[in-house]
Amino acid sequence: MADRMTVGVIGGTGMLGRSLVSGLLDGGVVRPGELWVANRSGARGDLPEGVRVTADASELVAACDVVILSVPPGHFDALEIDASGRLVISVMAGVSRDRIAAHTGASRVARAMSSPAAARRLAFSPWCGELDEADRARVAAVLGACGTTAEVADEAQIEVFTALTGPVPGFVAQFAAAMADYATRRGVAPEVVDMAMRQLFLSAGEMLAGDAPTAQAHVQGMIDYAGTTAAGLLAMQAAGVQQVVDEGLDAAVARTREIGG
Questions:
Q1: Residue 42 and which of 32, 33, 85, 226 are 20 to 30 A apart at CA?
Q2: 228 marked as binding residue
Q3: Was 45 annotated as part of a binding site?
C-alpha cells in the first residue's frame, strides 16, 4: 500500500469520474478530506461531505499529490493546468501519454482505462507508464481501490481494453439482449426473460471470477461434455461468432484512436 496521498479528480462528477470517486472512498485509499473534485460548475451534487469541490482545476492540482484526468477527450485541449511535479493518471480514451505530458507539463504520467463499475469496486483498470516504484505503487493503490488492476506493456493495449472492458456492461449486455430476444420471440414473457438474463449473467460472472479455469477452458469443458450446450457452442462457432466479436472490438478500438485526436 502506498503512503497516504491527496488525490484530485478533474471531471469528478461525470459518469466515470464519479464512479472513481466512489471507489476511492469506499476502498479507503483516501478520506473525504484528502479527495478533491473539479468540475466546470463547482457544484457538489451528491458528493459526500468533506470532499473538496472546485471549479478551478489549477486549485485542485496545486493541492493534490495525484491528479486523475477524467474529462471527455474533446475537452482536454481546453484544460489549462500546470501539473509539473504531480503524478497524473489519465482515464481519457485515446489521449496519449506524450500529448498529456506536453499539454500539462507533467513528467510522471500513467495512462489507464477504467469503467463505471468502479463505483461498485468491480472495475478492471489496466494502466501503463514509465514510473518509479513509488509512483507505480500509487497508481496500483488508486486503481486497485476501484476493483482489480494490472500494469500492461504499452498504450496500444490500453486502447484494446478501452474497447474490451471500459464500456461496462456494453458488449456483455449486447449478448444478454440477443439471448433475451431469442426467448421472447419464442413466447416467454418479457419480464420472466429479463429476470432470467439478470440471474444468468450474475451467476456466470461470479463463476468466471471465482473459478480457476479460464473462460476458454470453461467453453472447452462444455464442448467436451458433449451435451446440449456443446451443440449450441459449436453452432455459434461455426456461424462465425469469433469473427463478429473481432469486428465489433476492432471498430471500438478504431474509434478510441479516432476520438483521441
A1: 85
A2: no
A3: no
